[in-house]
Design a protein that fits this description.
Layout: E1 8-13, E2 31-40, E3 48-57, H1 59-62, H2 68-77, E4 86-90, E5 93-97, E6 105-106, E7 109-110
Antiparallel strand pairs: 1-2, 2-3, 3-4, 4-5, 6-7
Length: about 110
């Protein structure tokens, strides 16, 4: 893998495990908060870091249990980061991305 600019390392946290038991009903069990880190311009002298906060789906909680092959597939798919709304922080500013890592623009508004 040579494209380090397109790589983001992720850590997904189950938010329900971080809050008190009597207040966990408002947060779905399948919804996690993910924190990402990547570098842009890896091979140039102007490289900079980017930090991302994202919503992540826990497919083990979201998809129903079933046959052993289905359970293996469900757990394996959980390692793939699916596009979701995110906020990206770089030294050039903060940007909201509707489906991270993809960028969309609607006139002068960028998502």
């Amino acid at each position: 893998m040579d494209n380090y600019n397109a790589t983001t390392a992720w850590m997904s946290v189950n938010f329900r495990n971080l809050i008190w038991k009597d207040q966990d009903t408002f947060w779905p069990s399948w919804l996690n908060v993910a924190f990402g880190y990547g570098i842009n311009g890896y091979y140039s002298p102007e490289k900079y870091s980017r930090y991302v906060i994202d919503l992540d789906r826990n497919l083990v909680e979201l998809l129903p249990e079933g046959a052993p092959l289905w359970n293996w597939l469900r757990q394996s798919l959980n390692y793939i980061k699916l596009p979701a709304p995110a906020v990206e922080f770089t030294r050039y500013g903060t940007q909201f991305k509707l489906l991270y890592p993809f960028s969309f623009s609607l006139g002068s508004i960028k998502f």
